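cron nightly-structures :: item 1 of 1
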Amino acid sequence: MKVLIIRRDNIGDLILTTPLIATIARETGSKVDLLVNTYNKPVLDNNPHVGKVFLYSKLHHRSKGTSALSVLWQRLKTIIDLRRARYDVAIVAKERWDKRPLQWAKLAGAKKIIAIGNDCPPEVTDALPESTQNEHLVKLLARLAEPLGITAEPGPLELYVRPEETAAIKQKISLPDDGLPVYGLQISSRRPEQRWPVENFVALAQRLAAQQPCHILLFWSPGSADNKLHPGDDEKARYIIDNCQDVSLIPVITENIRELMAGMSLCNQIVTSDGGALHIAAGVHKPIVALFGNKAAWLWTPWAIPHELLQGEGYDVRNIPVDEVYNAFIRLQEQR
Protein backbone atom coordinates (compact mmCIF):
# COMPACT_ATOMS: atom_id res chain seq x y z
CA MET A 1 0.00 0.00 0.00
CA LYS A 2 1.40 3.39 -1.03
CA VAL A 3 0.36 6.10 1.43
CA LEU A 4 0.82 9.86 1.05
CA ILE A 5 0.28 12.18 4.02
CA ILE A 6 -0.28 15.86 3.25
CA ARG A 7 0.86 18.22 6.04
CA ARG A 8 1.83 21.62 4.61
CA ASP A 9 1.35 23.59 7.83
CA ASN A 10 3.57 24.92 10.62
CA ILE A 11 6.46 23.17 12.37
CA GLY A 12 4.43 22.10 15.40
CA ASP A 13 1.65 20.68 13.23
CA LEU A 14 4.08 18.42 11.39
CA ILE A 15 5.77 17.28 14.60
CA LEU A 16 2.38 16.34 16.04
CA THR A 17 1.79 14.24 12.91
CA THR A 18 4.87 12.04 13.53
CA PRO A 19 2.97 9.51 15.70
CA LEU A 20 0.50 8.97 12.83
CA ILE A 21 3.39 8.52 10.39
CA ALA A 22 5.07 5.98 12.67
CA THR A 23 1.85 4.03 13.31
CA ILE A 24 1.00 3.66 9.62
CA ALA A 25 4.58 2.73 8.71
CA ARG A 26 4.76 0.05 11.42
CA GLU A 27 1.33 -1.41 10.74
CA THR A 28 1.71 -1.53 6.95
CA GLY A 29 5.39 -2.44 6.92
CA SER A 30 6.07 0.36 4.42
CA LYS A 31 7.52 3.84 4.71
CA VAL A 32 5.12 6.75 4.37
CA ASP A 33 5.60 9.52 1.80
CA LEU A 34 4.76 13.12 2.67
CA LEU A 35 3.94 16.43 1.05
CA VAL A 36 5.22 19.20 3.33
CA ASN A 37 6.47 22.76 2.95
CA THR A 38 10.09 23.80 2.70
CA TYR A 39 9.88 25.49 6.12
CA ASN A 40 8.87 22.46 8.22
CA LYS A 41 10.61 19.69 6.24
CA PRO A 42 13.79 19.54 8.42
CA VAL A 43 11.86 17.97 11.32
CA LEU A 44 11.50 14.83 9.16
CA ASP A 45 15.24 14.39 8.57
CA ASN A 46 16.53 10.98 9.74
CA ASN A 47 12.99 9.71 10.47
CA PRO A 48 13.10 5.97 9.64
CA HIS A 49 9.35 5.85 8.92
CA VAL A 50 9.48 8.46 6.16
CA GLY A 51 10.00 7.61 2.50
CA LYS A 52 9.89 10.23 -0.23
CA VAL A 53 9.26 13.84 0.77
CA PHE A 54 7.60 16.19 -1.72
CA LEU A 55 8.18 19.87 -1.05
CA TYR A 56 5.62 22.64 -1.34
CA SER A 57 7.14 26.11 -1.37
CA LYS A 58 5.03 28.93 0.01
CA LEU A 59 5.69 32.17 -1.84
CA HIS A 60 6.47 34.11 1.35
CA HIS A 61 8.93 31.40 2.48
CA ARG A 62 11.00 31.47 -0.71
CA SER A 63 14.67 32.24 -0.21
CA LYS A 64 16.24 35.53 -1.21
CA GLY A 65 16.80 35.69 -4.95
CA THR A 66 14.18 33.01 -5.74
CA SER A 67 11.50 34.28 -8.09
CA ALA A 68 7.79 33.58 -7.72
CA LEU A 69 7.85 32.05 -11.20
CA SER A 70 10.45 29.47 -10.18
CA VAL A 71 8.36 28.55 -7.12
CA LEU A 72 5.30 27.99 -9.32
CA TRP A 73 7.38 25.92 -11.76
CA GLN A 74 8.55 23.73 -8.88
CA ARG A 75 4.93 23.19 -7.83
CA LEU A 76 4.11 21.96 -11.32
CA LYS A 77 7.01 19.49 -11.15
CA THR A 78 5.77 18.30 -7.76
CA ILE A 79 2.31 17.65 -9.19
CA ILE A 80 3.80 15.57 -12.00
CA ASP A 81 5.92 13.56 -9.55
CA LEU A 82 2.90 12.94 -7.32
CA ARG A 83 0.85 11.63 -10.24
CA ARG A 84 3.66 9.31 -11.31
CA ALA A 85 3.89 7.82 -7.81
CA ARG A 86 0.35 6.33 -8.14
CA TYR A 87 -0.76 6.47 -4.52
CA ASP A 88 -3.36 4.14 -3.10
CA VAL A 89 -4.18 6.50 -0.24
CA ALA A 90 -3.81 10.23 0.39
CA ILE A 91 -4.44 11.50 3.93
CA VAL A 92 -5.29 15.13 4.71
CA ALA A 93 -3.56 15.37 8.09
CA LYS A 94 -5.57 18.11 9.79
CA GLU A 95 -8.14 18.18 12.56
CA ARG A 96 -10.58 19.27 9.85
CA TRP A 97 -10.22 19.20 6.08
CA ASP A 98 -9.61 22.37 4.12
CA LYS A 99 -9.51 23.02 0.41
CA ARG A 100 -5.76 23.51 -0.10
CA PRO A 101 -4.44 20.14 1.17
CA LEU A 102 -7.50 18.44 -0.33
CA GLN A 103 -6.58 19.96 -3.68
CA TRP A 104 -3.15 18.33 -3.41
CA ALA A 105 -4.75 14.98 -2.55
CA LYS A 106 -6.87 15.25 -5.70
CA LEU A 107 -3.86 16.28 -7.81
CA ALA A 108 -2.00 13.20 -6.56
CA GLY A 109 -4.70 11.02 -8.11
CA ALA A 110 -4.91 8.73 -5.06
CA LYS A 111 -7.53 5.99 -5.20
CA LYS A 112 -8.64 6.76 -1.64
CA ILE A 113 -8.70 10.13 0.13
CA ILE A 114 -9.10 10.24 3.92
CA ALA A 115 -10.04 13.40 5.81
CA ILE A 116 -11.91 14.59 8.90
CA GLY A 117 -15.05 16.69 8.49
CA ASN A 118 -18.83 16.51 8.73
CA ASP A 119 -19.22 18.30 5.38
CA CYS A 120 -16.45 16.77 3.30
CA PRO A 121 -16.86 17.08 -0.49
CA PRO A 122 -17.47 13.91 -2.51
CA GLU A 123 -13.78 13.64 -3.48
CA VAL A 124 -13.13 12.44 0.08
CA THR A 125 -13.82 8.72 -0.15
CA ASP A 126 -13.39 8.10 3.58
CA ALA A 127 -14.76 11.00 5.62
CA LEU A 128 -14.41 10.76 9.39
CA PRO A 129 -16.85 12.70 11.59
CA GLU A 130 -15.50 15.61 13.58
CA SER A 131 -14.86 14.87 17.24
CA THR A 132 -17.43 16.03 19.78
CA GLN A 133 -14.87 15.87 22.61
CA ASN A 134 -11.85 17.92 23.59
CA GLU A 135 -9.15 15.63 22.26
CA HIS A 136 -5.44 16.23 21.79
CA LEU A 137 -4.43 16.79 18.17
CA VAL A 138 -2.28 13.64 18.20
CA LYS A 139 -5.34 11.55 19.09
CA LEU A 140 -7.47 13.30 16.49
CA LEU A 141 -4.89 12.61 13.79
CA ALA A 142 -4.61 8.97 14.87
CA ARG A 143 -8.22 8.48 13.74
CA LEU A 144 -7.09 9.06 10.14
CA ALA A 145 -5.55 5.57 10.14
CA GLU A 146 -8.85 3.85 10.98
CA PRO A 147 -10.06 3.49 7.34
CA LEU A 148 -6.86 1.48 6.78
CA GLY A 149 -7.88 -0.92 9.56
CA ILE A 150 -5.34 0.58 11.97
CA THR A 151 -6.57 1.34 15.49
CA ALA A 152 -3.30 1.35 17.46
CA GLU A 153 -2.84 4.02 20.12
CA PRO A 154 -0.50 6.82 18.99
CA GLY A 155 3.02 6.74 20.38
CA PRO A 156 5.30 9.65 21.34
CA LEU A 157 6.44 12.43 19.05
CA GLU A 158 9.43 11.37 16.97
CA LEU A 159 12.31 13.69 16.14
CA TYR A 160 15.71 12.25 15.31
CA VAL A 161 18.79 14.26 16.25
CA ARG A 162 22.08 12.75 15.11
CA PRO A 163 24.93 12.53 17.68
CA GLU A 164 27.12 14.67 15.44
CA GLU A 165 24.45 17.42 15.46
CA THR A 166 24.39 17.40 19.26
CA ALA A 167 28.18 17.48 19.41
CA ALA A 168 28.32 20.37 16.93
CA ILE A 169 25.89 22.60 18.82
CA LYS A 170 27.58 21.77 22.11
CA GLN A 171 30.90 22.88 20.66
CA LYS A 172 29.36 25.96 19.02
CA ILE A 173 27.99 27.29 22.32
CA SER A 174 30.98 26.07 24.40
CA LEU A 175 28.81 24.18 26.88
CA PRO A 176 31.08 23.00 29.73
CA ASP A 177 31.26 19.25 30.23
CA ASP A 178 31.13 19.51 34.04
CA GLY A 179 28.10 17.38 34.90
CA LEU A 180 25.92 20.31 36.05
CA PRO A 181 22.22 20.24 35.08
CA VAL A 182 21.33 22.11 31.92
CA TYR A 183 18.04 24.01 31.74
CA GLY A 184 16.46 25.67 28.72
CA LEU A 185 14.51 28.93 28.48
CA GLN A 186 12.76 29.54 25.13
CA ILE A 187 11.45 33.11 25.00
CA SER A 188 9.78 33.50 21.57
CA SER A 189 6.18 33.22 20.48
CA ARG A 190 4.30 34.69 17.54
CA ARG A 191 1.24 35.83 19.50
CA PRO A 192 1.56 38.72 22.02
CA GLU A 193 -0.58 36.98 24.65
CA GLN A 194 1.88 34.08 24.65
CA ARG A 195 4.99 36.20 25.23
CA TRP A 196 6.15 36.09 28.83
CA PRO A 197 7.89 39.37 29.75
CA VAL A 198 11.66 39.42 29.41
CA GLU A 199 11.95 40.74 32.97
CA ASN A 200 10.28 37.54 34.16
CA PHE A 201 12.77 35.38 32.27
CA VAL A 202 15.60 37.29 33.95
CA ALA A 203 14.07 36.75 37.39
CA LEU A 204 13.45 33.06 36.68
CA ALA A 205 17.02 32.50 35.45
CA GLN A 206 18.41 34.11 38.58
CA ARG A 207 16.22 32.00 40.87
CA LEU A 208 17.11 28.76 39.09
CA ALA A 209 20.81 29.61 39.36
CA ALA A 210 20.40 30.40 43.05
CA GLN A 211 18.60 27.11 43.68
CA GLN A 212 21.54 25.00 42.48
CA PRO A 213 24.61 25.31 40.26
CA CYS A 214 23.46 24.86 36.67
CA HIS A 215 23.81 26.06 33.11
CA ILE A 216 20.89 27.82 31.43
CA LEU A 217 20.58 27.73 27.65
CA LEU A 218 18.71 30.68 26.14
CA PHE A 219 16.73 29.98 22.96
CA TRP A 220 14.88 32.50 20.79
CA SER A 221 13.79 33.16 17.22
CA PRO A 222 16.79 34.85 15.59
CA GLY A 223 16.38 38.21 13.91
CA SER A 224 15.31 41.72 14.77
CA ALA A 225 11.76 42.54 15.80
CA ASP A 226 11.44 44.98 12.88
CA ASN A 227 12.17 42.33 10.24
CA LYS A 228 8.86 42.22 8.34
CA LEU A 229 9.51 38.83 6.71
CA HIS A 230 10.94 36.92 9.69
CA PRO A 231 10.60 38.99 12.91
CA GLY A 232 12.78 37.74 15.73
CA ASP A 233 13.70 38.43 19.34
CA ASP A 234 17.36 39.45 19.21
CA GLU A 235 16.63 42.57 21.27
CA LYS A 236 14.83 40.60 23.99
CA ALA A 237 17.61 38.03 24.12
CA ARG A 238 20.21 40.79 24.49
CA TYR A 239 18.25 42.29 27.40
CA ILE A 240 18.19 38.94 29.20
CA ILE A 241 21.89 38.31 28.55
CA ASP A 242 22.85 41.79 29.80
CA ASN A 243 20.84 41.31 32.99
CA CYS A 244 22.11 37.80 33.80
CA GLN A 245 25.84 38.50 34.00
CA ASP A 246 26.07 36.63 37.32
CA VAL A 247 24.34 33.52 35.90
CA SER A 248 25.80 30.75 33.72
CA LEU A 249 23.49 31.80 30.89
CA ILE A 250 24.55 30.52 27.47
CA PRO A 251 22.95 32.07 24.35
CA VAL A 252 22.11 29.49 21.69
CA ILE A 253 22.04 31.32 18.36
CA THR A 254 20.30 28.81 16.12
CA GLU A 255 20.56 29.16 12.35
CA ASN A 256 17.98 26.48 11.53
CA ILE A 257 15.48 24.05 13.03
CA ARG A 258 18.02 21.24 13.27
CA GLU A 259 20.23 23.37 15.54
CA LEU A 260 17.24 24.19 17.75
CA MET A 261 16.45 20.48 18.02
CA ALA A 262 20.05 19.64 18.88
CA GLY A 263 20.30 22.46 21.42
CA MET A 264 17.11 21.43 23.20
CA SER A 265 18.29 17.83 23.29
CA LEU A 266 21.10 19.00 25.62
CA CYS A 267 18.64 20.21 28.28
CA ASN A 268 17.36 18.38 31.33
CA GLN A 269 14.23 20.53 31.50
CA ILE A 270 12.75 23.40 29.46
CA VAL A 271 10.46 26.41 29.97
CA THR A 272 8.71 27.60 26.81
CA SER A 273 5.54 29.21 25.53
CA ASP A 274 3.11 27.32 23.34
CA GLY A 275 4.30 27.06 19.74
CA GLY A 276 6.58 25.11 17.46
CA ALA A 277 9.48 25.21 19.94
CA LEU A 278 7.31 23.57 22.60
CA HIS A 279 6.66 20.60 20.32
CA ILE A 280 10.34 20.41 19.39
CA ALA A 281 11.12 20.13 23.11
CA ALA A 282 8.50 17.39 23.46
CA GLY A 283 9.82 15.71 20.32
CA VAL A 284 13.28 15.36 21.87
CA HIS A 285 11.54 14.08 25.03
CA LYS A 286 12.33 16.85 27.50
CA PRO A 287 10.13 17.69 30.53
CA ILE A 288 8.45 21.04 29.92
CA VAL A 289 6.92 23.91 31.84
CA ALA A 290 4.50 25.12 29.18
CA LEU A 291 3.15 28.69 29.24
CA PHE A 292 -0.20 28.81 27.44
CA GLY A 293 -2.19 31.78 26.19
CA ASN A 294 -4.39 29.46 24.15
CA LYS A 295 -7.95 28.65 25.20
CA ALA A 296 -7.75 25.25 23.48
CA ALA A 297 -4.80 24.06 25.57
CA TRP A 298 -6.15 20.50 25.49
CA LEU A 299 -5.47 20.43 21.73
CA TRP A 300 -1.83 21.51 21.92
CA THR A 301 -0.52 20.46 25.34
CA PRO A 302 2.90 18.69 25.40
CA TRP A 303 2.34 15.13 24.22
CA ALA A 304 3.56 12.03 26.07
CA ILE A 305 6.20 13.73 28.23
CA PRO A 306 6.18 15.03 31.85
CA HIS A 307 5.00 18.62 31.92
CA GLU A 308 3.38 21.42 33.90
CA LEU A 309 0.89 23.54 31.97
CA LEU A 310 0.27 27.11 33.16
CA GLN A 311 -2.34 29.57 31.92
CA GLY A 312 -2.53 33.19 32.98
CA GLU A 313 -5.66 35.10 33.81
CA GLY A 314 -7.58 35.86 30.63
CA TYR A 315 -5.54 33.21 28.78
CA ASP A 316 -2.57 35.58 28.73
CA VAL A 317 0.86 34.30 29.78
CA ARG A 318 1.86 37.85 30.69
CA ASN A 319 -0.35 37.37 33.76
CA ILE A 320 1.58 34.33 35.05
CA PRO A 321 3.76 35.33 38.04
CA VAL A 322 7.42 34.30 38.23
CA ASP A 323 6.69 32.41 41.47
CA GLU A 324 4.15 30.22 39.69
CA VAL A 325 6.56 29.28 36.90
CA TYR A 326 9.42 28.66 39.33
CA ASN A 327 7.26 26.44 41.57
CA ALA A 328 6.03 24.46 38.57
CA PHE A 329 9.64 24.00 37.45
CA ILE A 330 10.62 22.65 40.90
CA ARG A 331 7.57 20.33 41.04
CA LEU A 332 8.51 18.90 37.66
CA GLN A 333 12.10 18.53 38.80
CA GLU A 334 11.00 16.62 41.90
CA GLN A 335 8.73 14.33 39.87
CA ARG A 336 11.71 13.34 37.76
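cron nightly-structures :: done
DSSP finds twelve helices and twelve strands in the chain.
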